[in-house]
Amino acid sequence: MNGIFFPGLGIKFGYVPSSFTIFGLEIKLYAVVIAIGFILALLVSNREAKLSGQSEETYLDFFLWLIVPAIVGARVYYVIFSWDEYFVKGKGFWKTFVDVINIRQGGLAIYGGLIAGVTVAFIFNKVRKLSLPLMGDTVCMGVLIGQILGRWGNFFNREAFGEFTNSFIRMAIPVDYFLEDGSFDNYLESGIINEKMLLNPEMVNGKGCITVYPTFLLEGLWNLAILILIFCYRRYKKFDGELSLMYIMGYGAGRFVVESLRTDSLMAGSFKVSQLIALICFIGAFIILIWNRIRIARGTVLACHPVMKAVKTKTAETASEKAEDVKKTVKSDVKEKTSEKKLSTTTASKKPGQKGGSGKKSSSKK
Q1: Is the pLDDT of residue 116 over 80?
Q2: Which secondary-structure segment (H or E) carries 272?
Q3: DSSP string, 286-297
């Protein structure tokens, strides 16, 4: 019941918990994964700040500003596009309020968190008089790492999966899990689990399973590809903001495709909200990227802080210091040898005189 399988790949996880308990308190693995992702995002951003000659403390402050707004933004976004699920006539204010703020059952949307994050970054940079494009370049790899880990949180929760498939990448989840979890009826009513899945079950380890696209994995792998691309390109960037534009374009393109496979999408009429936003992000970032490239080609000088600049400068300074030390050592050795040579010459010139003097004394006595 608690297993997750990839029969086409020969991978079977017999037991995948969604939570664990410490001193009677249930802790969701989704929350743990998100927390780890946030910490890694901070560490990577601090490292990138150091490599581009920025203050690491600035990014620690920024992440402290970001924590609460990002969670609130992700939740508000989800609630807005799931309005009918929370605001039911006759439900009562207090029950509605509790359901809205209860994030232990899921219901966080990455786009809401990103929108909140950009808003906080804009305000933070205005207050600190810093560069928003440069900050975007500095944190984008950390954000990608956080997103990749966050998708594995979906894995533990058995959520954010796609339509039925019998392809080799299919993910098999026992139907009993949803029945035991109490989410089966809700998933069936909302269309997350649909008739096609139930009519095409697959027996894995003696359990009847639905087989679906592992969209969490597909998006995670796509984000990993973007991360590697940005990591390799970052020292060659042409202007501040180029890396963050690459991230927005790449994530937008991947999310647009992956979202088309999902059954739990937030909707605006007959359109999938995430696909609309992904398309807007891709087009907007592409236009800005091309426009800035054209400006550079025409001779406009744009602000640019290469990520490896600090390392190169430090290396040059270290090399210069070593060269100076070598020069000083050589000079010192030359002086010592010169002094020794002079002393040796002086001593040699005195010895014959001293011998003659004693001879004259000897002959006078005679």
Answers
A1: yes
A2: strand 271-272
A3: HHHHHHHHHHHH
How many distinct helices (H) and strands (E) make up the chain?
Answer: 13, 9
Q: Which amino acid is residue 68, in one-letter code? A: V
CA 35-249-220 angle, 5° bins? 40
Q: How far apart are CA 188 and CA 202, in angstroms?
A: 18
Read off the pLDDT of each residue in 15-20 and give the average, rounded to a whole number.
91
Residue with tokens 């029945």: 179
Per-position DSSP letters for 136-181, written without gaps between them:
HHHHHHHHHHHHHHHHHHHHHHT-S-BSB--STT-EEEEHHHHHHH
Q: Tell me the three state secondary structure of residue 231.
A: helix
**Residue 342 per-residue DSSP state:** H
> CA geometry: angle at 275 spanning 270 and 276, to 5°?
75
Dump pLDDT digits (tens) for 215-243. Answer: 999 999 999 999 999 999 999 999 999 99
Contact between 273 and 233 (Cβ < 8 Å):
no
Cβ atoms < 10 Å from Cβ of 317: 10
